[in-house]
User: Which sequence fits this backbone?
């Protein structure tokens, strides 16, 4: 049975929300799945991803093939890097402690970079504030030719 790690769409029209699932490749996109391993919300900036790293790693070791989008998500969360490091441990290139140290170092740098990006996006996003940081007032327009017009 070929197994894939893929996205399962939820959410309403033009408001996508995805579950990251492990499913039989022959099952329909939103149909039966084996296990849910996370969620992905592309509407937030940056996109929010909740992922059970250990379950994803276990399924990759069992031979599950991620789709292109899920592969990028797994790479972003460090699952593919961790799989790469564990392969080096298996080959005897370094021990398990060294692999975990490398992963923790990468994870710390990655988190710092994501915080920086999030701050830049927050500063660049146009808020509901006017010049000088003061809240903007709503301007009411007077209608011309309306029923309450005085002559």
Assistant:
């Amino acid at each position: 049975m070929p197994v894939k790690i893929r996205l399962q769409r939820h959410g309403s029209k033009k408001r996508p929300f995805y579950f990251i699932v492990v499913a039989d490749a022959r099952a329909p996109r939103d149909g039966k799945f084996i296990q849910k391993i996370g969620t992905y919300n592309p509407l937030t900036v940056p996109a929010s991803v909740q992922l059970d790293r250990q379950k994803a790693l276990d399924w990759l070791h069992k031979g599950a093939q991620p789709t292109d989008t899920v592969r990028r998500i797994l790479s972003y969360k460090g699952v593919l890097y961790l799989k790469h490091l564990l392969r080096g441990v298996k080959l005897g290139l370094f021990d398990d402690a060294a692999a975990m140290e490398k992963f923790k170092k990468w994870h710390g740098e990655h988190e710092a970079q994501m915080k920086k990006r999030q701050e830049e996006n927050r500063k660049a996003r146009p808020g509901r504030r006017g010049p000088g940081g003061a809240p903007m007032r709503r301007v009411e327009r007077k209608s011309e030719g309306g029923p309450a017009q005085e002559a």
